[in-house]
Amino acid sequence: MAKKVVALILAGGQGTRLGILTDEIAKPAVPFGGKYRIIDFALSNCVNSGIYTVGVLTQYRPHVLSRHIGIGRPWDLDRKDGGVVILPPYVAQDDSNWYKGTANAVYQNIDYIDAYSPEIVVVLSGDHIYSMDYNEMIDYHLSKGADGTVACMRVPLSEAHRFGMMVTDFENRIIDFQEKPEKPRSDLASLGIYVFNWSFLKERLLEDEQTPESSNDFGKNILPETVDRDLGKLFAFVFEGYWRDVGTLQALWESNIELTRPIPPLNLHDPAWRFYTQTEEYLPAYVGRSSRVRNSLINEGAEIYGRIDSSVIFQGVQIGEGSVVRNSVIMTNTRIGKGVIIDKAIIGENSVINDDCVLGYGEEVPHETHPGIYDSGIVVVGYDAVIPAGTKIGKNCAIANHVREGDFSGDVQGGKTIAAKE
Amino acid sequence: MKVLGIILAGGRGEYLGPLTQVRTSAALPVFGKYRSIDFTLSNMVNAGISKVGIITQYSPRSLMDHIGSGKEWDLDRKQGGLFILQPYYSPYNPSMGYKGTADAIFQNINILRRGNEDYVMIGSGDHIFKADLSEIFRYHLETGSDITALTASNIENYNFGNVSLLKCKDGRVVEWIEREGPLEDLGGSNCVALGVYFMNKFLLRELLYSTVPNGENELVKGVIIPNLGSLNVREYRYNGYWRDIKQSKSCYYRTNLDILNPEIRRELFYEHGRVFTKLKDLPPPKITGTAFISNSVIADGCVVGGKLEDSVLFRDTRVLAGATVKGSVLLEGCIVEEGAYVENVILDKYCTVRSGKSFVGEQSDPTVIEKHGVI
User: In CA terms, which of A160, B64, B272, B319 is 20 to 30 Å from A260?
Assistant: First the structure.
């Protein structure tokens, strides 16, 4: 018999390592894959798995995200019973406040969950790109008689220092946690996807809230406490499908470009597992006589007269004659003039790149102020930016949101930032 | 001002062969992702009409599937919204079916009785055009017209199939001829009617009550033309892009390829609001490394690995590596396998051209492969 399931999507993250792309929008609202936003994947996985009660917990810059989700119509989540609900932080009589950590965010919405009296609660992250049938994980959870189950992926040991690692026994029960370990004792990395028995989780959340020194986080507090004090049975569910954390510019760029390969690891064309999104009404894409398009995703409303190679072109993008776009992600309604050369760039929505610009020229130099964010030689242009004709922009540059032609004084050397003057 | 929209979408379109054997002409797929009714329906919605009755009769399944609850046009409403007016059987109406356009509206006279609309706009489900219809309302009021008809002056463009020829003087229609087939002698006519009529709702009701029970079943022939003398029937001139898609197979073919023209694309899709259609949320079209594409339109869900020239690909179509598609219109879900060659053809939905096969039609008379066909 089907169990009653409620899903919670944690979508409050800022995503600082995406630089200017998340200056004005939350990470789950960052555009991805030609017409989607990152949260579409978690939402679509929910409805494809038959979970129709979904709470989306927002906090950082929620406007674009809230408007995107709306009443959940594209996901068939506009329902009388359940459906999608946006759960922002709120003020209550005693001390409710901003969400302090992932566990605190769920704690503050205990009433929302209790209203459905579910047996199972699925806690998801809104900033991962993946395709997963949660039923398989829930079935596993039930068959193990677990109190909580953590989805994991096997990663090379050399990569373990980037993840929370699960140390398991012979039957996959979790016996220890290692947060970003130097010396990993396991190759199972947590994916930030959890299945809990609600009665168990509620008890843990209430208790965790009484611990002043806790940072109210699933990975740092709730799960390790459970194991250390033997409060319940946690199991690791080994997931072997497609999962990507697009938390850095390089990862975001790579996951996009992966889609343009002949046989991409993430199949957007699977009729049995479709990804839904809030789309604008556009006419089909037009490819002109002077163009040459290969190994790329193009999209509705796009008008292409230039050459495109290994790129993801979003809706309504115009690319003029004689322009060359390689290894790049061009987001919605951006206009690229004639004779422009773009190599390895991410360009935000509604930007304008005027004629004869060159993006991504010269040597790769580290970024002057944020070498940890703007790396891998990617040029990042924000939303609603205008680049004057003939400008050359070097690698690892960041062109902020809303810059205008007057903000430029000639070419931009590699590793610089151009910010908008007021 | 409140306006009721009525769309005549029951026609068969008998000149289109296999394309209209499976669907009414209002449901004919156009431009990669649309159906012909989207244009009139979107025009009405963009002009602020929020109550639309769609009259259906011939093979309406795909039309119904397309329109659904009307939510893509914001017509899923508590107030007004979408009304599907299909033929029905009742004691007063023992011979099921509509005998003509006037009879169809007359049998649904209740939609004219109820509601607080003052005016009614009648349009056709198979005309492709984009106009600001609210201009007609304004013109209608300013000129004190009884009936306002949308017209075009460049008769030559429309003088091939069935056509309504008008003789107008100072904006007033003085003569109206309904003809089948092209005319040698225009007889002084100076414009053609484009199938959009605007009038007072109560006037339409009276006209229908006074004509239909007396055996007149056609709106233009039986209702408007006999009253030309007594009513102030005026023309509103529209000289933009306009096509009656059901005139012929080659008309359907040419209309679809018109989207390759940037001016027509601009006029149809970027002026006077958007064209709404049923969304399917298919993935972005994918172009592989072996593709060569020139002057073509590609809808969502397609995968192109072959050569594509001067063609329109509807949703979910596959052109595999080494295949060639030239000057063709491929409706939803078609597959052109490796090494196949098609030129100047219309492939209806879900057709497959097998590997290595070649199929060439005439540009003036394109070949149509029927739905689910395999070559």
Answer: A160
In this complex, do A299 and B285 lie within 8 Å of one another by their Cβ atoms? yes
Which of A26, A4, A33, A22 lies closest to A299, judged by CA?
A33
- Alpha helices by DSSP H, A49-168: 63-69, 102-107, 110-114, 134-143
B286–A297 CB contact, under 8 Å: yes
A71 shares contact with chain B (CB less than 8 Å): no
Alpha helices by DSSP H, A223-331: 223-228, 249-258
Residues of B in contact with A308 (CB under 8 A): 287
Q: Mutating which of A277, A281, A291 best tests the B interface, going by the most B Cβ atoms within 10 A?
A: A281
Q: Hey, is A245 helix, strand or coil?
A: strand
Assess A35–B contact: CB distance below 8 Å, yes or no. Answer: yes
Q: How far is B336 from chain A (nearest CA, A)?
A: 17
Distance, CA of B147 to CA of B171 (rounded, Å): 12
> Under an 8 A CB cutoff, do B284 and A268 touch?
yes
pLDDT value of position A211? 87
Query: Closest approach of chain A CAs to the CA of B301, in angstroms?
Result: 7
| Average pLDDT of chain A to the nearest whole number | 90
How are beta strands A335-336 and B172-179 bridged, if at all?
unpaired
| Structure token digits, residue A416 | 């610089």
Is A276 part of the contact surface with chain B (CB cutoff 8 Å)?
yes
Does residue A315 contact residue A333 with C-beta atoms inside 8 Å? yes
Q: Compute the distance between CA of residue B26 and CA of residue B332 in angstroms, rounded to an integer.
A: 17
The C-alpha of B297 sits at a distance from chain A's nearest C-alpha, in angstroms, of 4
Interface residues of B toward A, Cβ cutoff 8 Å, are 31-33, 71, 259-260, 262, 265, 268-269, 274-277, 279, 281-301, 303, 308, 312-313
Beta bridge partners of B34: B30
* Nearest chain B residue (CA) to A74: B281
pTM of the model: 0.89
Contact state of A296 with B286 under an 8 Å Cβ cutoff: yes
Q: What is the pLDDT of residues A135-178, one digit of tens each?
A: 999 999 999 999 999 999 998 888 888 888 999 999 999 998 88
Give the up-direction half-sphere exposure of residue B1: CA atoms within 13 A in the CB hemisphere: 18
Angle (nearest 5°) at CA B84 between B81 and B90: 130
Residues B149, B154, B159, B160: what is their CA dihedral angle, to the nearest 10 degrees? -110
Which residue does chain A place closest to B304, by CA atoms? A294
Q: Which of A275, A284, A289 faces B294 most closely, judged by CB atoms?
A: A289
Among residues B87, B43, B38, the alpha carbon closest in space to that of B63 is found at B38
Residue identified by tokens 């590997």 is B355
Chain A neighbors of B277, CB-CB under 8 A: 281
Q: What is the pLDDT of residue B323?
A: 92
Determine the pLDDT at residue A332.
93
> pLDDT for B111-139, tens place per residue?
888 888 899 999 998 889 999 998 899 99
Of B247, B188, B197, B238, the closest CA to residue B220 belongs to B197
Tally of helices (H runs) and strands (E runs) in chain B: 9, 28
Q: What is the C-alpha separation between B325 and B345, in angstroms, rounded? A: 9
Q: What tokens were used for B100?
A: 């003509």
- Whether the CB-CB separation of A286 and B297 falls below 8 Å is answered with yes
**C-alpha–C-alpha distance, residues B135 and B196, integer Å:** 13
Asked if B30 and B245 count as a contact pair (C-beta separation under 8 A), the reply is: yes
Contact between A286 and B293 under an 8 Å Cβ cutoff? The reply is: no
Strand partners for A178:
A165
Confidence category of residue A1, pLDDT binned at 50, 70, 90: very low
Which positions in chain A touch B299 (Cβ < 8 Å)? 284-285, 300
Closest partner residue to B283 among A268, A283, A296, by Cβ?
Answer: A268
Alpha-carbon dihedral of residues B56, B57, B61, B63, nearest 10 degrees?
-30
